[in-house]
Amino acid sequence: MTPLLDIRNLHVTRRAGAYAFRLEIPALVLAPGAILALLGKSGSGKSTMLDLLALALPPDGAERFAFAPPGTPGGTVIDLAAPWRPSPWRGGTAIQDRTRAHHIGYVLQTGGLLPFLSVRRNIALPAEIAGRPAPARVEQLAHRLGVAHHLDRMPHALSVGERQRVAIARALVHQPPLVLADEPTSALDPALAIEVMDLLLAETRAEGAALIVATHDHDAAERLRLPVIAFEITRGAQGAVAVARQGAVAIARQGAVAVARQGAGTVARPGRASS
Amino acid sequence: MKLLLAARLALADMRHDAALFAGVALTVAAVLAPLLVLLGLKTGVVEHMIGGLRADPAVREIVLRGHKERPPEWFAAMRDRPDVAFIAPRMRQLAHTVDVGMAASPTRGTNADFVVSGPADPLLRAQASAIGPASVVLSQRLAQQGGFKPGDEVTVWAIRRATTSNQRIDVRARVAAIAPPGATQNAVVFGPLEMAAALEAFQERETGRSDAARHEFPSFRLYARDITDVATLERDLLAEGLEVRTDVARIAWTLSIDRNLSTLFAVLSACGGAGVAVTLTLSLWGNVARKRRSLSLLRLLGLPARALVVFPLVQGGLVAGAGSVLAAGVALAVAAMINAAYGTAYLEGSNLCVIAPSHILITIAGAVAMALLASLAAVRPVLRIAPSEGMREA
User: Are residues B43 and B104 in the same domain?
Assistant: First the structure.
């Protein structure tokens, strides 16, 4: 099966004054419908990687950065590295815009809803941007996620948990093959966080979409038996290098090193080593 | 489609921040409304003054002092000048006195002056075109005194004193029209050049049929095409050695008032316009800065940067449009109040404050154009908004 996402030897460096942070992704293969957790604490490279996957940050180089959304004509593989090769990234090239609009859904920390649009229009927006308005699907998703009674309200009138439900509906409305979630439960209390995470996974699975969820919540990743990507971090005086490992990886957490496996459904606890 | 969607989102944002945008629109209106009223007052006063000058043909008349015979070629050359509306020879004092009577009873006449006229004579306005080789136009006074009406066949005659007896020349003509009331207060026959030449030749005892084309007249009746042409004509005639009298000083004074008020208005408009431009620029730029997260979210969701540019353009255009429409409404109401309060007391027959539809259209178009220019200041930051900003919490 053609992987949805196939990344080889991708690297990017972000600089802040004299400090440089380099992220390397030796290999990342994501099958259609697969679910992965980006696991790591602040500064580990989660956000940088999510920006890369969201096509919001150009890599400095990539041997391969291919995206093959199912259902595209002729099973087209979009070479996302191509637009970046000839000239520096200037943001907003057509292929990135089109790929984001058609093939990626986003769930952000506190929803990331547009405050000037009603809940209905917020959910409908990605479908409208993709040129496929789907009012019936908006209603359907809103019912499934329990926010149908809020459709004509404005986001500020909703609780954080309700906003996250709306964000999940918005991420799925245009039926993207890939959903990216950035700390979707970090602003929620533990009970609500579990509920929202369960809902996100259930709805993503129901839609057949792949999901990459960035989280620092080891417990959630462990409870949900999520395969993970984690980061091997080497720090020096001039900066840090984070290598994102898929599968058996080393995880830096609270100074301890742990190892996780993709597909094994287990996440290593800090201070505990496994292989 | 994307541009349309961006425009709809910009409208939704405006509705959400209605108070803010209403404030900006009110600011625009607060600047433009007084300017419109001022323009209306300037227009009312100046147009009344200039309109009064333009409506009175006497203001455009260049009157020759004394007599100086000019050849027919000179009249032809003057007639061809673009700044000349009308020129006709003026007859000698003795020759232009005639009697007019019904053709059926040519012995009972009414005394009148004969004035050469023709098409484009500003004294006769539309009736001037009725004058032909055998057609005349009579002044209102003459028509009343002689009981003449359009269509009457009349005889125009002159008498000259001979040694033994008086001699008389009769010219038959049809009354083509009665002159408008303002043309003259006197009893006047407005007739063609050929008729005048015949009458004058008779008085000067020339023999045979008069040749109008070669007849030399001692004076002329000359009108500039516009009040702004009078000064040039006066200068050229003076250069020819003709001493003339004109209303050029009065015209220059009135035009200088218009010019000075226009300059004053332009300065005030520039100040007001600059204020509006700064207000719009800052508000649109500030709005983009405030909405950066929302705009970056739209970029993250796949809306192209060029579509986002519509955001400040639509909002700037609509705010300026709404502000200028409001300003026009307020200014029209104030103008109506001014005109109702002062009536036409100050300016005979005219409103004191005149706001023309063109003023309103220019104001709205100017404000919208200014807003579009101002929104360009916000375009650059919009283009620099990265989709990745949408990923992070503000």
Answer: no
Domain extent at residue B157: 70-75+87-222
Model ipTM? 0.84
pLDDT 10s per residue in chain A (275 long)?
Answer: 788 888 988 888 988 888 888 999 988 888 889 998 888 877 788 888 888 888 888 888 888 888 888 766 545 667 766 655 544 344 446 778 888 888 999 998 878 899 999 999 999 999 999 988 889 999 999 998 889 999 999 999 999 889 999 999 999 999 899 999 988 888 778 888 888 888 888 888 988 899 999 888 777 777 878 888 888 888 887 888 888 887 633 333 333 233 333 333 333 333 333 32
Judge whether B236 is closer than 8 Å to chain A, CB to CB. Answer: no
Chain A residues closer than 8 Å to B294 by CB: 114-116
Determine, yes or no, domain membership for B64: no
Residue B82 lies in a domain: no
- Single residue among B183, B201, B222 that ends a domain in this structure: B222
Residues A5-260, CATH architecture? 3-Layer(aba) Sandwich (3.40)
Q: Is the pTM of this model over 0.90?
A: no
Cα first-last separation, chain B: 29
Burial B218-253 (b: 16+ CB within 10 A, else e): bbbbbbbbebebbbebbeebeeeebebebbbeebee
Closest residue to B388, CB basis, from A56, A98, A131: A56
Smallest CA-to-CA distance from B48 within B261, B198, B216 is with B261
Name the closest residue on chain A to residue B18, using Cα atoms. Answer: A116
Q: Are residues B91 and B203 in the same domain?
A: yes
Q: Where are the domains of chain A?
A: 5-260
Q: What part of B 285-314 touches A (C-beta under 8 Å)? A: 294, 297-305
Taking contacts as CB-CB distances below 8 angstroms, the residues of chain B near A54 are: 300, 387-388, 391
Count: domains in chain B: 2
Q: Tell me if B315 is assigned to some domain.
A: yes
From the list B5, B13, B299, which residue is nearest A92 (CB)? B299
| Chain A neighbors of B297, CB-CB under 8 A | 112, 114
β-strands A249-253, A256-260 pairing: antiparallel
